[in-house]
Each structure stands twice: as structure tokens, then as C-alpha cells.
Design goal:
By secondary structure, the protein is α/β, with parallel strands linked by helices. The chain has helices at 10-13, 15-25, 82-92, 103-115, 128-143, 183-186, 197-207, 232-243, 262-267, 293-296, 315-328, 333-355, 380-383, 388-400, 421-440; strands at 49-53, 56-59, 64-67, 121-125, 147-151, 172-173, 189-192, 211-216, 246-251, 273-276, 287-291, 360-364, 367-371, 403-404, 413-414. It has 2 domains: 10-67 and 333-440, Alpha-Beta Complex (Aspartate Aminotransferase, domain 1); 82-328, Type I PLP-dependent aspartate aminotransferase-like (Major domain) (Aspartate Aminotransferase, domain 2, 3-Layer(aba) Sandwich), CATH 3.40.640. It is 38% helix and 15% strand. Strands 4-11-10-9-8-5-7-6 form an 8-stranded mixed beta sheet, with helices on both faces. Strands 1-2-3-14 form a 4-stranded mixed beta sheet. The two termini are 30 Å apart.
Amino acid sequence: MNQKSTTTPAADRYARSTALHEKARQLMPGGVNSPVRAYQSIGRDPIIIREGAGCTVIDVDGNAYIDYVGSFGPLIVGHAHEKVIAAILKTAKRGTSFGMPTELESHMAAAVIDAVPSVEVVRFVNSGTEATMSALRVARGFTGRSKIVKCIGGYHGHADGLLVSAGSGATTLGVPSSPGVPESITSQTLLLPYNNTAAAEKLFEEQGDDIAAIIIEPVAGNMGCVPPEPGYLEDLREMCNDAGTVLIFDEVMCGFRVAYGGAQSLYGIKPDMTAMGKIIGGGMPCAAYGGREDIMRQIAPDGPVYQAGTLSGNPVAMAAGLATLELLREPGTYKRLETLSARLADGLRNAAEKAGVDMQLNRVGSMLTPFFTTRPVTDYDTATASDTAAFATFFGVMLDEGVVLPPSQFEAWFVSLAHDEKTIDQTIAAAQKAFRAVAAG
């Protein structure tokens, strides 16, 4: 990589990024278009990216980094993959959007239905928020019920009914976690601790007849990577069956990531509906929700539940998604991702142990999170017990060593097919220095 020397003073190494961010702050809230990009949780200015290729991104100062952000998940084949870019360019030359159906939509729908066990009918949208918001509306319309359940610490986009604070206790009424969200909306959202079957059983005993849907990440990614405990998803499936509640898997992050058919394929649990995004757009804005035909036929124009979108299913996103899924269907793809991800995880664990740093690493396939804590991380409470100051130190050293990570202790890292043994080993070498810095305080 053409990375500048790490002996360059930090103020000089990131000077153009710092200046551009200061200008951006005058133009956009926080200088960004999504809050985590502002680097506030680690107390520094963000780097401003100029370009990316493979597993590498280069900032406006010319510093190159091995990238584990991957646009927060979509870029499983790496940046600017030649087949994806070729598909985008070929399609864009014919027109970027028509407001009328295209053949590519049907091809993409068939690919998703073929891949995801629960999906019999699918509707494309433009973002994960649209996918989860729409899935919940359909579930409410289908059941005739109003209440929904989400897990404490689970993020399902920024729709009003899902922006709910992490309450204490087994179950609480949701209260807004953002100004501008009416309590009348979030009062229909119930909270449960993740990986807690007993709490879910109690909730269903008390309110099961009123619950339209449970929405859950089968592999949590937005409190950091937290896998389901054995039997947990099976128990939720059974409870939903008994109560007539729609089980929605939010696979926006883990779909096509932990397995080609998503977490539901990996664990053998079929939800009633699935929200998807990120990878299915191949780096373009694209998401979807799908599920059982009897539920999905409630959507207009087949049924009474309304949902629409000007750019939904636009041909450029469909082309990028189809090219990406074609690459993922190549033999050995997920075995390769597993090999690289296991190599990285083992190296990080060994580096932390040698440095004497308390660290718990969770991994499912090619998504992982090292938590700076002494206890296993199984839910929001154990995740938030992590030492965020230690993570900030770790992040800063890694950045100086040419490795860029998601800028929060509570985000997942993503390994791509563009990484290789060399870049994984370079990452581990950087982590050895970073863990020593954490140990030194």
C-alpha cells in the first residue's frame, strides 16, 4: 500500500481530512450524513475517503488503509469490483430510473427468493429503514394488531416506532430515544432483552394476543456482533406460532453475509418475514422485504397495505445486486470468507492475550466484534459494559498503522473476499501494537 509513513505527525498526516470535515460541519449536521461517521464516540475527526479498491481505501491525504468498515456491510466482494462496476456502467448507460417496471427487477426478485428460505414474494425498497418499517406495517395489517416487540439494543433503522430507548427490566413500554418521536407511537413498541427466552415467554403470557410482530436481528450487529444463544431463535419461532404473531428477521446486516441464505439458512429457522439490505444492493442503495405469500399479498396493489417508492427497484441497483449475488454463488465463496475471518479472529485473540488486555471476541462468519470487557457478550447490557476508552485507543493506533475499523465499540467489523492472508496478517501485526498501547493505558 502507498501509505504515508506512520512517523509523520498525526496533525500533518490527517490535515486535509480535518480541514474538509470542518468545512463539511458548516454544511451538514456534524459534517456527515449518518451520525456514526462523525467519529464522536472515539473523540477525533473522521478521515475523508477519496477512493477504494479491493480491501483498501485511500483518504484525501493519500493515506491507505486496510478496510473493515466495508460501508458497514454491503461490500462483501470488496470496493469497486470489476464485475459489479461493469454491471452498473452497462445499465446506467441505458437509463438510471424509469418509474416503470424493468426486467432486472424480476431477475433480482427470483434470485432473492431462490436464496432466502422464508421469502416466497419480495418487494424492493431503497434502505434498511424502509424495509423494516414496511415489514412491520404489513405485519400489523395482516394480524389486525398494533403492538410490536424489539430487543433492547437492537437497531432496525430510524423509523419512529423503532427508535426506542434501551429500557430496564424484562419488558418495558418503549419511550422515544430521539426528540421528534411521539410517545404515542413508541408506546406500541415493547422491549425485550436479547437472548432471554424467559423474558419473552413472560411477555407472550401477558400480551401475546396483542402482538403483531417480533422484529429481531438473528445475529445482532448493532450492539456489536452478538450471536443467538442455542435454542433462542427456535423458542421465539414457537412462541410466535402459538400466538399468531409474525416473526420478522432483520437480516439487513447478516443476510447474504453469514451464509448465502442468511442467518435463517445458517441456523435452520424460518421466519414469516425477512428484511434485507446492504449486500443485495452491491454498494448501491437497495433493500427489500419478503416472506410468506399470504402475508406479502396484503401489499398494494394486491392488497390494502400501502407502500411505494420512486426509486425502488431501480435498474442500477438491481444490476449491482445481481452481479454481487452471482459472485457470491461461486463455489467456495463462504468457505473462503470463513477461513479469512477465523484467521483474523484467532490473531486478534492471541494479540490481546499476549498484551494482557481483557477482550471478548464474537464472530459469526465474516462479521465480528472484539469487545474490551472481561465477560462474554450475549446482550446489550454485557456489550455496554465494554471499555469504550480502550476501544478509542485501539482504534487510533490501528488507524495510524493503516487499518480502518468501524468507529464504535458497538459496531461489527466486516471481512470481504478482497481481503487475503497478507492483509489479515498485516492487520494482526497492527493489532499487536494497538493492544500494547491499550495495556500501557
